[in-house]
Amino acid sequence: MKILTGLPAILLAVMVFFGAAVAAEQDYTWTISGELKGDADTNLIYVGVTSDSLLTAATVEVHYDTTLLEFVPYGNPADYLTGRTTVFTQAPITSPDSNSNFVRVVLFDLALGIPPGEGNVLKFKFRVKAGVPGGTQTALTLTRRKGSPQLATQQFEIEGSIWDSPGDPKDFSWKMKGLAVADSAAAEVYILMTNTTWIADMALDITYDAQVLEIADPAADVTLLGRAADINLSVTQPAGAGSARLTFSSPSSTPPFPVIESGNGKIVGIKFNVTGSLPAGGSTDIALKLSDGTALVTHQLDARAYSGPTADVDGNGSTSIFDVLEFLSLWQNAPTSPFTDVNGDGKSDIFDLLEILKALR
Protein backbone atom coordinates (compact mmCIF):
# COMPACT_ATOMS: atom_id res chain seq x y z
CA MET A 1 0.00 0.00 0.00
CA LYS A 2 1.34 3.36 -0.97
CA ILE A 3 1.63 5.81 1.91
CA LEU A 4 1.10 9.51 1.13
CA THR A 5 3.69 11.90 2.47
CA GLY A 6 4.27 15.62 2.48
CA LEU A 7 1.62 18.12 1.40
CA PRO A 8 -0.86 15.53 0.01
CA ALA A 9 -0.88 13.78 3.36
CA ILE A 10 -1.54 17.03 5.23
CA LEU A 11 -4.37 17.96 2.88
CA LEU A 12 -5.92 14.53 3.26
CA ALA A 13 -5.66 14.79 7.04
CA VAL A 14 -7.35 18.21 7.04
CA MET A 15 -10.13 16.91 4.74
CA VAL A 16 -10.76 13.94 7.02
CA PHE A 17 -10.54 16.26 10.05
CA PHE A 18 -13.18 18.66 8.70
CA GLY A 19 -15.34 15.87 7.37
CA ALA A 20 -15.57 14.32 10.80
CA ALA A 21 -16.30 17.67 12.45
CA VAL A 22 -19.04 18.64 10.02
CA ALA A 23 -20.69 15.28 10.47
CA ALA A 24 -20.56 15.68 14.25
CA GLU A 25 -21.90 19.23 14.70
CA GLN A 26 -25.52 18.16 14.87
CA ASP A 27 -24.67 15.65 17.59
CA TYR A 28 -24.13 18.43 20.11
CA THR A 29 -26.47 20.97 21.74
CA TRP A 30 -25.93 24.53 20.52
CA THR A 31 -27.30 27.76 21.97
CA ILE A 32 -27.50 31.44 21.09
CA SER A 33 -27.71 34.07 23.84
CA GLY A 34 -27.13 37.76 24.52
CA GLU A 35 -29.19 40.93 24.21
CA LEU A 36 -29.96 43.59 21.63
CA LYS A 37 -30.20 47.20 22.81
CA GLY A 38 -31.08 49.96 20.42
CA ASP A 39 -28.91 52.57 22.12
CA ALA A 40 -25.80 50.36 22.46
CA ASP A 41 -22.90 50.96 20.11
CA THR A 42 -22.57 47.18 19.79
CA ASN A 43 -24.27 44.16 21.37
CA LEU A 44 -22.60 40.85 22.18
CA ILE A 45 -24.26 37.66 20.93
CA TYR A 46 -22.82 34.38 22.19
CA VAL A 47 -22.80 30.92 20.63
CA GLY A 48 -22.47 28.06 23.10
CA VAL A 49 -22.19 24.30 22.79
CA THR A 50 -22.73 21.42 25.19
CA SER A 51 -20.71 18.33 24.35
CA ASP A 52 -19.72 15.10 26.10
CA SER A 53 -16.75 14.41 23.84
CA LEU A 54 -14.01 16.31 22.01
CA LEU A 55 -15.31 18.45 19.14
CA THR A 56 -12.34 18.60 16.80
CA ALA A 57 -13.71 21.32 14.53
CA ALA A 58 -16.92 23.11 13.60
CA THR A 59 -18.28 25.22 10.80
CA VAL A 60 -21.29 27.29 11.86
CA GLU A 61 -23.26 30.20 10.43
CA VAL A 62 -25.17 32.86 12.35
CA HIS A 63 -28.12 34.10 10.30
CA TYR A 64 -29.80 37.45 11.08
CA ASP A 65 -32.22 40.02 9.65
CA THR A 66 -30.15 42.57 7.75
CA THR A 67 -32.99 45.12 7.84
CA LEU A 68 -32.75 45.26 11.64
CA LEU A 69 -29.19 44.34 12.53
CA GLU A 70 -25.71 45.17 11.32
CA PHE A 71 -22.85 42.72 11.84
CA VAL A 72 -19.73 44.40 13.29
CA PRO A 73 -16.58 42.34 12.57
CA TYR A 74 -13.62 42.13 14.92
CA GLY A 75 -10.30 43.42 13.69
CA ASN A 76 -8.57 40.37 15.15
CA PRO A 77 -10.26 37.04 14.25
CA ALA A 78 -9.11 35.56 17.57
CA ASP A 79 -11.54 37.92 19.32
CA TYR A 80 -14.41 35.71 18.18
CA LEU A 81 -13.17 33.03 20.58
CA THR A 82 -14.47 32.83 24.13
CA GLY A 83 -14.76 30.26 26.92
CA ARG A 84 -13.20 26.88 26.08
CA THR A 85 -11.86 28.11 22.72
CA THR A 86 -9.68 30.93 24.07
CA VAL A 87 -6.77 28.50 24.36
CA PHE A 88 -6.87 27.77 20.62
CA THR A 89 -3.65 28.52 18.78
CA GLN A 90 -5.48 28.77 15.45
CA ALA A 91 -7.67 31.84 14.92
CA PRO A 92 -11.07 31.05 13.39
CA ILE A 93 -11.69 31.65 9.71
CA THR A 94 -14.57 34.08 9.32
CA SER A 95 -16.50 34.96 6.20
CA PRO A 96 -18.70 37.97 6.99
CA ASP A 97 -20.58 39.34 4.01
CA SER A 98 -22.42 42.65 4.35
CA ASN A 99 -24.61 41.66 1.40
CA SER A 100 -25.67 38.36 2.99
CA ASN A 101 -27.74 37.60 6.05
CA PHE A 102 -25.24 35.33 7.74
CA VAL A 103 -21.71 35.15 9.14
CA ARG A 104 -19.76 31.91 8.68
CA VAL A 105 -17.09 30.80 11.13
CA VAL A 106 -14.76 27.86 10.60
CA LEU A 107 -13.50 26.90 14.04
CA PHE A 108 -10.67 24.43 14.52
CA ASP A 109 -7.41 23.72 16.26
CA LEU A 110 -5.44 20.72 15.01
CA ALA A 111 -3.82 20.30 18.43
CA LEU A 112 -6.72 20.93 20.83
CA GLY A 113 -10.33 20.90 19.60
CA ILE A 114 -13.25 21.94 21.82
CA PRO A 115 -13.04 19.86 25.02
CA PRO A 116 -16.15 18.28 26.55
CA GLY A 117 -18.31 20.58 28.67
CA GLU A 118 -20.84 23.39 28.26
CA GLY A 119 -20.72 27.14 27.78
CA ASN A 120 -20.02 29.78 25.17
CA VAL A 121 -17.34 29.21 22.55
CA LEU A 122 -17.90 32.13 20.14
CA LYS A 123 -18.98 35.73 20.44
CA PHE A 124 -20.21 38.18 17.80
CA LYS A 125 -20.94 41.90 17.73
CA PHE A 126 -24.16 43.27 16.25
CA ARG A 127 -25.50 46.80 16.09
CA VAL A 128 -29.22 47.63 15.97
CA LYS A 129 -29.86 49.78 12.92
CA ALA A 130 -31.08 53.36 13.37
CA GLY A 131 -34.84 53.77 13.44
CA VAL A 132 -35.64 50.27 14.70
CA PRO A 133 -38.23 50.81 17.48
CA GLY A 134 -38.02 49.16 20.86
CA GLY A 135 -40.07 46.00 21.19
CA THR A 136 -39.23 44.76 17.70
CA GLN A 137 -38.87 40.99 17.58
CA THR A 138 -36.09 39.32 15.62
CA ALA A 139 -34.54 35.85 15.53
CA LEU A 140 -30.92 34.74 15.21
CA THR A 141 -30.40 31.26 13.83
CA LEU A 142 -27.38 28.96 13.93
CA THR A 143 -26.82 26.43 11.14
CA ARG A 144 -23.95 24.27 9.84
CA ARG A 145 -24.20 25.59 6.30
CA LYS A 146 -26.55 27.90 4.51
CA GLY A 147 -29.71 25.91 3.89
CA SER A 148 -28.75 23.07 6.24
CA PRO A 149 -30.84 22.10 9.28
CA GLN A 150 -30.84 24.51 12.21
CA LEU A 151 -28.53 23.91 15.13
CA ALA A 152 -30.24 26.56 17.28
CA THR A 153 -32.53 29.58 17.01
CA GLN A 154 -33.22 32.31 19.53
CA GLN A 155 -35.89 35.02 19.51
CA PHE A 156 -34.83 38.45 20.74
CA GLU A 157 -36.82 41.54 21.65
CA ILE A 158 -34.88 44.66 20.76
CA GLU A 159 -34.72 47.00 23.72
CA GLY A 160 -35.68 50.50 22.68
CA SER A 161 -33.16 53.29 22.64
CA ILE A 162 -33.62 55.96 25.31
CA TRP A 163 -33.88 58.35 22.38
CA ASP A 164 -37.12 56.66 21.29
CA SER A 165 -39.06 57.94 24.29
CA PRO A 166 -38.75 61.59 25.34
CA GLY A 167 -40.54 62.68 28.47
CA ASP A 168 -43.94 64.35 28.57
CA PRO A 169 -43.90 67.77 30.29
CA LYS A 170 -47.35 67.00 31.71
CA ASP A 171 -45.66 64.38 33.88
CA PHE A 172 -42.97 66.71 35.19
CA SER A 173 -43.00 68.85 38.34
CA TRP A 174 -42.89 72.59 37.72
CA LYS A 175 -42.13 75.60 39.93
CA MET A 176 -41.41 79.28 39.51
CA LYS A 177 -39.35 81.45 41.81
CA GLY A 178 -38.53 85.12 41.79
CA LEU A 179 -38.96 88.47 43.47
CA ALA A 180 -39.46 92.04 42.39
CA VAL A 181 -37.74 95.02 43.95
CA ALA A 182 -40.57 97.30 45.11
CA ASP A 183 -41.00 100.58 43.25
CA SER A 184 -38.25 99.64 40.78
CA ALA A 185 -38.37 98.80 37.08
CA ALA A 186 -36.93 95.29 37.37
CA ALA A 187 -38.09 91.81 38.34
CA GLU A 188 -36.65 88.35 37.70
CA VAL A 189 -38.46 85.01 37.56
CA TYR A 190 -37.01 81.52 37.16
CA ILE A 191 -38.76 78.46 35.78
CA LEU A 192 -37.75 75.24 37.54
CA MET A 193 -38.44 71.75 36.23
CA THR A 194 -38.01 68.29 37.77
CA ASN A 195 -38.01 65.56 35.13
CA THR A 196 -37.16 61.86 35.30
CA THR A 197 -36.75 61.44 31.52
CA TRP A 198 -35.06 63.62 28.93
CA ILE A 199 -36.87 66.13 26.78
CA ALA A 200 -35.80 68.39 23.94
CA ASP A 201 -38.94 69.68 22.21
CA MET A 202 -41.72 71.48 24.04
CA ALA A 203 -43.58 74.79 23.98
CA LEU A 204 -44.46 76.73 27.14
CA ASP A 205 -46.77 79.74 27.40
CA ILE A 206 -46.10 82.22 30.17
CA THR A 207 -48.85 84.73 30.91
CA TYR A 208 -48.75 87.85 33.07
CA ASP A 209 -50.55 91.14 33.67
CA ALA A 210 -49.61 93.37 30.74
CA GLN A 211 -50.55 96.42 32.84
CA VAL A 212 -47.79 95.57 35.32
CA LEU A 213 -45.08 93.58 33.51
CA GLU A 214 -43.48 93.28 30.11
CA ILE A 215 -40.58 91.39 28.56
CA ALA A 216 -38.86 94.28 26.85
CA ASP A 217 -36.43 92.27 24.70
CA PRO A 218 -37.31 88.55 24.40
CA ALA A 219 -33.95 87.74 22.76
CA ALA A 220 -31.97 89.20 25.67
CA ASP A 221 -34.35 88.90 28.63
CA VAL A 222 -35.16 85.18 28.38
CA THR A 223 -32.13 82.98 29.11
CA LEU A 224 -31.62 79.21 29.14
CA LEU A 225 -30.00 77.96 32.33
CA GLY A 226 -28.51 74.78 33.75
CA ARG A 227 -29.46 71.55 31.95
CA ALA A 228 -31.24 73.51 29.21
CA ALA A 229 -28.23 75.60 28.27
CA ASP A 230 -27.25 73.51 25.23
CA ILE A 231 -30.59 73.42 23.40
CA ASN A 232 -32.35 76.03 21.28
CA LEU A 233 -34.95 78.51 22.49
CA SER A 234 -37.27 80.67 20.41
CA VAL A 235 -39.39 83.34 22.13
CA THR A 236 -42.43 84.99 20.54
CA GLN A 237 -44.37 87.72 22.32
CA PRO A 238 -47.46 89.33 20.77
CA ALA A 239 -47.39 93.05 21.48
CA GLY A 240 -49.39 93.98 24.57
CA ALA A 241 -50.86 90.49 24.96
CA GLY A 242 -49.36 89.77 28.36
CA SER A 243 -47.98 86.47 27.20
CA ALA A 244 -44.95 84.89 25.55
CA ARG A 245 -44.38 81.48 24.01
CA LEU A 246 -41.11 79.69 24.79
CA THR A 247 -40.34 77.01 22.19
CA PHE A 248 -37.55 74.59 23.06
CA SER A 249 -35.84 72.36 20.50
CA SER A 250 -32.64 70.37 20.06
CA PRO A 251 -30.04 71.68 17.60
CA SER A 252 -29.64 68.14 16.23
CA SER A 253 -32.02 65.41 15.06
CA THR A 254 -29.48 62.57 15.30
CA PRO A 255 -29.02 60.89 18.69
CA PRO A 256 -27.31 61.34 20.96
CA PHE A 257 -28.31 64.99 20.69
CA PRO A 258 -28.40 67.91 23.15
CA VAL A 259 -31.43 67.59 25.44
CA ILE A 260 -32.63 68.62 28.88
CA GLU A 261 -31.46 65.59 30.82
CA SER A 262 -33.30 64.22 33.84
CA GLY A 263 -32.79 66.23 37.02
CA ASN A 264 -34.19 69.25 38.78
CA GLY A 265 -33.52 72.96 38.98
CA LYS A 266 -33.71 76.12 36.92
CA ILE A 267 -34.01 75.86 33.15
CA VAL A 268 -35.07 79.42 32.24
CA GLY A 269 -34.52 82.88 33.66
CA ILE A 270 -36.81 85.80 32.64
CA LYS A 271 -36.22 89.49 33.27
CA PHE A 272 -39.35 91.61 33.39
CA ASN A 273 -39.70 95.35 33.19
CA VAL A 274 -42.17 96.58 35.78
CA THR A 275 -44.33 99.01 33.82
CA GLY A 276 -47.09 99.47 36.40
CA SER A 277 -47.25 100.03 40.13
CA LEU A 278 -45.74 97.25 42.27
CA PRO A 279 -45.19 98.68 45.79
CA ALA A 280 -43.67 96.83 48.75
CA GLY A 281 -46.06 94.12 49.83
CA GLY A 282 -47.78 94.13 46.46
CA SER A 283 -47.85 91.17 44.08
CA THR A 284 -48.89 90.02 40.64
CA ASP A 285 -49.50 86.54 39.25
CA ILE A 286 -47.52 84.82 36.52
CA ALA A 287 -48.88 81.56 35.06
CA LEU A 288 -47.09 78.83 33.12
CA LYS A 289 -48.95 76.53 30.72
CA LEU A 290 -48.20 74.12 27.93
CA SER A 291 -49.06 75.26 24.44
CA ASP A 292 -52.18 73.03 24.53
CA GLY A 293 -53.49 74.96 27.54
CA THR A 294 -52.48 72.47 30.26
CA ALA A 295 -51.78 74.48 33.42
CA LEU A 296 -48.39 73.78 35.01
CA VAL A 297 -47.90 76.30 37.81
CA THR A 298 -48.88 79.81 38.91
CA HIS A 299 -46.41 82.02 40.74
CA GLN A 300 -47.22 84.98 42.92
CA LEU A 301 -44.54 87.55 42.22
CA ASP A 302 -44.08 89.52 45.43
CA ALA A 303 -42.47 92.94 45.63
CA ARG A 304 -40.05 93.47 48.49
CA ALA A 305 -38.60 96.72 49.66
CA TYR A 306 -34.85 96.97 49.30
CA SER A 307 -33.04 99.08 51.88
CA GLY A 308 -29.49 97.92 51.24
CA PRO A 309 -27.31 94.82 51.61
CA THR A 310 -28.41 92.46 54.38
CA ALA A 311 -27.98 88.82 55.38
CA ASP A 312 -31.77 88.59 55.73
CA VAL A 313 -32.12 87.22 52.20
CA ASP A 314 -35.73 86.05 52.52
CA GLY A 315 -36.85 89.33 54.14
CA ASN A 316 -38.58 87.88 57.20
CA GLY A 317 -36.73 90.06 59.71
CA SER A 318 -34.11 87.54 60.89
CA THR A 319 -31.17 85.54 59.58
CA SER A 320 -31.45 81.75 59.69
CA ILE A 321 -30.67 78.62 57.70
CA PHE A 322 -33.64 79.54 55.52
CA ASP A 323 -31.69 82.56 54.29
CA VAL A 324 -28.87 80.22 53.25
CA LEU A 325 -31.38 78.09 51.32
CA GLU A 326 -32.98 81.15 49.75
CA PHE A 327 -29.58 82.49 48.71
CA LEU A 328 -28.63 79.20 47.08
CA SER A 329 -31.98 79.07 45.30
CA LEU A 330 -31.70 82.60 43.91
CA TRP A 331 -27.96 82.62 43.25
CA GLN A 332 -27.22 79.27 41.60
CA ASN A 333 -27.13 79.64 37.79
CA ALA A 334 -28.77 83.05 38.14
CA PRO A 335 -27.73 86.70 37.59
CA THR A 336 -26.99 88.95 40.53
CA SER A 337 -30.06 89.96 42.56
CA PRO A 338 -30.13 92.85 45.05
CA PHE A 339 -31.26 90.38 47.70
CA THR A 340 -28.29 88.04 47.14
CA ASP A 341 -25.66 90.80 47.10
CA VAL A 342 -25.19 90.46 50.86
CA ASN A 343 -21.85 92.27 51.14
CA GLY A 344 -22.80 95.12 48.77
CA ASP A 345 -19.99 94.63 46.27
CA GLY A 346 -22.31 94.45 43.27
CA LYS A 347 -21.91 90.67 42.85
CA SER A 348 -23.52 87.51 44.18
CA ASP A 349 -20.89 84.88 44.92
CA ILE A 350 -19.39 82.63 47.56
CA PHE A 351 -18.34 85.64 49.65
CA ASP A 352 -22.01 86.61 50.08
CA LEU A 353 -22.75 83.09 51.29
CA LEU A 354 -19.93 83.40 53.83
CA GLU A 355 -21.48 86.62 55.12
CA ILE A 356 -24.78 84.85 55.70
CA LEU A 357 -23.03 82.02 57.54
CA LYS A 358 -21.22 84.56 59.75
CA ALA A 359 -24.57 86.19 60.64
CA LEU A 360 -25.92 82.83 61.82
CA ARG A 361 -23.51 82.78 64.76
What does this structure look like?
The chain has helices spanning 7-24, 218-221, 321-331, 350-359, and strands at residues 29-34, 43-50, 57-63, 69-72, 93-96, 102-108, 120-128, 137-143, 150-157, 173-181, 186-195, 202-208, 213-214, 222-224, 232-236, 243-249, 263-274, 283-290, 295-304. It has 361 residues and is mostly beta strands. The protein folds into 3 domains: 7-162, Immunoglobulin-like (Sandwich); 169-306, Immunoglobulin-like; 307-361, Type 1 dockerin domain (Orthogonal Bundle), CATH 1.10.1330. A hairpin with a 6-residue loop joins β8 (137-143) and β9 (150-157). The longest helix has 18 residues, at 7-24. The chain is elongated. The termini are far apart.
Identify low-pLDDT runs: 1-23
Report the strand count: 19
Which CATH class of the largest domain applies here? Answer: Mainly Beta
**First-last Cα distance:** 108 Å
Q: What's the overall geometry?
A: elongated
Domains, number: 3
